[in-house]
Amino acid sequence: MLTQQQVLEGRQQWLGGGYRLFYQEPLHVVRGEGVWLFDSEGRRYLDAYNNVASVGHCHPAVVEAIAAQAAQLNTHTRYLNDAIVEFAEDFLTEFPPELRNLTMTCTGSEANDLALRVARQITGGQGVLVTRWAYHGVTSALAELSPSLCDGFEQGKNVWLIDAPDTFRRQGAFAGGVERALEEMKQAGVKPAALLVDTIFSSDGVFSPEPAEMQRAVAQVRAAGGLFIADEVQPGFGRTGSQRWGFARYGVMPDLVSLGKPMGNGHPVAGLVGRPELFAEFGRRQRYFNTFGGNPVSCRAAHAVLQVLRREELQQNAQRTGEILREGLLKLAARYPVIGDVRGDGLFIGVELVSDQRNTPAPELAAFVVNQMRHKQILISATGPAANVLKIRPPMVFQPEHATLLLETLAGVLADIPL
Amino acid sequence: MLTQQQVLEGRQQWLGGGYRLFYQEPLHVVRGEGVWLFDSEGRRYLDAYNNVASVGHCHPAVVEAIAAQAAQLNTHTRYLNDAIVEFAEDFLTEFPPELRNLTMTCTGSEANDLALRVARQITGGQGVLVTRWAYHGVTSALAELSPSLCDGFEQGKNVWLIDAPDTFRRQGAFAGGVERALEEMKQAGVKPAALLVDTIFSSDGVFSPEPAEMQRAVAQVRAAGGLFIADEVQPGFGRTGSQRWGFARYGVMPDLVSLGKPMGNGHPVAGLVGRPELFAEFGRRQRYFNTFGGNPVSCRAAHAVLQVLRREELQQNAQRTGEILREGLLKLAARYPVIGDVRGDGLFIGVELVSDQRNTPAPELAAFVVNQMRHKQILISATGPAANVLKIRPPMVFQPEHATLLLETLAGVLADIPL
Fold first, then answer.
1. Would you tell me which residues 60-119 of chain B have a C-beta closer than 8 angstroms to some C-beta of chain A?
2. Which UniProt keywords apply (chains A, B) (predicted)?
3. How far is residue A366 from each of residues A45, A78, A339, A376, B152, measured CA to CA in Å?
4. What structural domains and CATH numbers belong to chain B?
């Protein structure tokens, strides 16, 4: 085992300059189990951040599925194999009947990038609407519509940025923004291809707007000839508690749904679900072959995750434990005015920190809290354009006792804030 | 287990329209071991096509590495972890000392797409030179420079297509084409970002040009301010026999090297190797975070593949067995004039089929041979703009006895050709 210093130096020496670490004091992890991560000195950390290990770190059912299939067969989709068909048939029952086709990829970036390709081909348009602090992935096409990716963001010329539905500061700005952007596109002679949103607006600061707001935005895009792509890479798979998919909370029907992070509990598997007629039209003009996408090991991993999600009723747990967390956070908000807002659904929670009664964002405070929590062995992070929103998004096996530990620790950190 | 008919119907019903199958009679695979794939009725097929299962289907050392690490920890690179550092340090010894940084992705597409992002940012140029029948991946940015992807290929406006170094028909056309394209770019006011080539020109028909030809092309691009990106997704990892990397056969030094398919023997792991100063400059302006990229399971899988490659001396085997294959194919060429050319290096072989003495491409014949071989339980495919080049690219554990079986079977198929 390497020392922490060796890992730090090794990263510095061997890894490309784009890498970043969490926390002022980076965490050297060596083992994971359920909601716990263990560092190289045997200390355990309550993981209240990682949505990828969605059914719990190293869930035995997923590990076993991967190990068994890897020993049996791992090849591509140009041969017939049972795994992808068994998975697709079962998985698609989780979606509305209109969304009956699955194309598998390896990452959420690949899923969103494919969604763009399909939308642009089908509509004949190039224009894409995304929120002002969106994140949709790392490919060239996605980087130019992911403002949160970097300081020197270069907005694509066919990309329109709209305000997120900020339920804290600017209620109702979203659909109006979509309307204005569509009008601008029209004037610029750009045909809209799609409205692409993370349905819980994770990087924008975690927002769940009123259904009517989302419905209006989606209707406007459709009327202008564009598609609605629901990016479920973060909110999907039951995390929001009340529904399996973030979009379902709004009563809207996407044309395409992109999936990623929690789909394989860490195994690189992702996909794009959508209306069969869209994929059929896309497929008439071109093939889509992703060498690793839909291989039997990835399908068995994703299938095992789905089965655990159902068997252990993790969506219901997200609802219940999420409620306990939010209630506790609201109590803290009543005691500590630095908590300007508590929001989110299920086990996807945003806690906005502010520095005064005008709700001025408090990014330094958020960084302080995140790092103090890490010091006290609770892992969370911060999000939003000002990075002042605590992001609490634990594995979905998070239990009430873990919520209590988080809340008590956070209370201690808030009590320690230097004023 | 599903029947073949059920799998076919399930794919039709549940999978997106972009999917395609190999062979007139698709193959229903259920198990893999070494160079063998087994179908649902227990028949075994000699796999002479799959370069992903590079160290042999279901190699126990790779399966064990995946299973052990998946049970221990699988998380992302914003924590410190030993696996990525141990892998990167060891892996980079396989490259020239100038190429000392690794950024990990999940697929070759992601690696090539990142290479484009880096090249475009570093050079400030947008122009990319690729070969006329190139394939570099499935993202939006790569699709517009991958003519072989589909019939309705839409060439990106900053993309210039150049002739591949066709050693059979047009010796010497490559560097001249690069020169002309750079001149055209200049006149069009497009600054070159990169020359991006698969170093064995797989989709163009499998070519290994003279080193001087490649050196001249690379020098021209450099002189014009562009980078040279070696796409090693297909030729890399020792497959060409004489060298670990396809580019090394030409005595050229890439700025960036993209890796994929064989890297994890089927596990979705890929990466981009390059000059540290390029990644450093890229990283100064933006982060690159790939959620699954560089996770400990993927790193252990890739590390196990590397160790097997060394321990079992598979590059040397590719050299030796490849030589036997080529010698046998040349003997067949002497007997059967439909074989116009035998080429390639190591275990990456192209056999060009022609219909007359003017070397007219014979795609129907190639399809006939590929399907007859499949019928006789030997798996190969066809490539090139006319799909008339048999592509023989087996797992690198392919032994002389397997080469003999392939050659005897091919001789039988060629003897059966309806004239």
1. 60, 62-63, 66-67, 70-82, 84-86, 88-89, 92, 100-103, 106-110, 113-114, 116-117
2. Aminotransferase, Pyridoxal phosphate, Transferase
3. 19, 49, 10, 15, 50
4. 4-55+313-415 (3.90.1150.10), 60-311 (3.40.640.10)
